[in-house]
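If your schedule permits, I should be very grateful for your opinion on a structural question. I have a record of one protein: its chain in single-letter code and its fold written as discrete structure tokens. Would you kindly read the sequence against the tokens and tell me how you understand this chain to fold? Thank you for your consideration; the sequence and its tokens are set out here.


***
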Amino acid sequence: MLAKAARDLSSSKLKPLFALSLSSFKSSTWTETNTPNRSKSPFLLLPPRYSSTNVPPLTRDGNYNDATSATVSVCPGCGVHMQNSNPKHPGFFIRPSIEKQNSGSVLRNLVPISQEPEFINSIKHGLIVEPNSSDTNPETGSDLNLKDDETGRPLVCARCHSLRHYGRVKDPTVENLLPDFDFDHTVGRRLGSASGARTVVLMVVDASDFDGSFPKRVAKLVSRTIDENNTAWKEGRSGNVPRVVVVVTKIDLLPSSLSPTRFEQWVRQRAREGGLSKITKLHFVSPVKNWGIKDMVEDVAAMAGKRGQVWAVGSQNAGKSTLINAVGKVFGGKVWHLTEAPVPGTTLGIVRVEGVLPFEAKLFDTPGLLNPHQITTRLTREEQKLVQISKELKPRTYRIKEGYTVHIGGLMRLDIDDSSVDSMYVTVWASSSVPLHMGKKENAYKTLEEHFGSRLQPPIGEKRVEEMGKWVRKEFRVSGSSWDASSVDIAVSGLGWFAIGLKGNAVLGVWTHEGIDVFLRDSLVPQRARTFEDSGFTVSKIVAKADRDFNKTHKEETQKKRRPKKKSTSDSVSDKENCQEVSL
């Protein structure tokens, strides 16, 4: 329809319209004088970059380059290049519908970057909101209603629309067509440049999964660049020394009893061990609670100067986009809505965020770095929702002795192999949605066979247990000097950690899936729960549902056994003949 209508217009009439950039449509509403041949069916005029014959390349470069942003429009939610010709390719969007207004039928303006009503709190907290019956479910394959109305809602790609409204991606295989994000080529070479604009690296780390979300590769690259450019600057040569701001986000998920001073010392130590030699500034923030955002913005703006470049980097689902949205609201009241969702890899390309920092300083959101050693990369969307920490962590503590074991779902197991003391305290810090189990180590294999995939989730279902692959054991020798506080943590990337409290020595065996990172570190939260968990399964919805299903199946099998068997016709005839013989 668009192509047919375009052919009806002469090239002289189309030229001034198509010469306009996308920003020209931002505040204009087309009227009768703007739309020639009004008697024909109205249609939406799109710039050439949205033409079905001009499909953008499959790339994650986004619009960080001035030349690129002038020729290609990107989704303001995820940074992917937008196109409206192929729904099976990344960046697909549906043109806004034309609605009749009191003044007559007008074309609705196309705004790629603008204001948008606030995200609902449940999405911010990582909860999934099921669509209302009046909404269109993306699983049905029906058209999405992407609107760009006078309230200022931005036009986003269909993937972002699905994530925003349904908390899931309609077709996850589409984004697999994109090449892997080449951080070293796209961002790394800019960070390592000895000349150019002042560089600030905003390193975003998830407080609830610090070691799993800490970008070690970026830390080592930046540290190497700082050392090299510092030396060059001292020798009188050009040396652009990056400033590193470590932002520990989601601190509202940590226990409120945690000491800020102790936490700062702990973070600096873990950052050094992760390869970061120098931290210019360290900030603890919570975008959801709006904690620490203003101070962070002021420091970043001062370091960036008038023309600096700020690069937000971090692992997938660390919270970069949520942080930048909060920054936009704090600075000058501007609101920038990058897509937020409780699934890894929400941002697909580099997004240049305009108007957030003062003067001509620029802020860039980059795609999350994939950490293949994070356990969430092995999980399905449903399983990821279970391990996602969405509210303040609460301790679950066991008093345990040698020869016993503790499971975190079907993903991690801790064995007390040997101990110099009669008992010790093991505190589990993980999502409350994941059930726990304590029992004898000798029964661990039986627990795996009977309860993994049902009472112990994730994984969900017996088939997924097989798909997750084999478990491997890692041994740790630990020691502690107090019964009152945890001394060390054993953490699994993307899941949580065991905090160990003892006054003595112990040999511990940790089981998880092959290839998953396991860390031994000083304890993050020394406190334990006031009451102890009992042996067996913890109380949870997953365990309760599994019990109901088991009881139902058991009841049906028992009734089936008690039900009398129906006699066959031959048996009935035989019984009748026997009766006749007896009567004779």
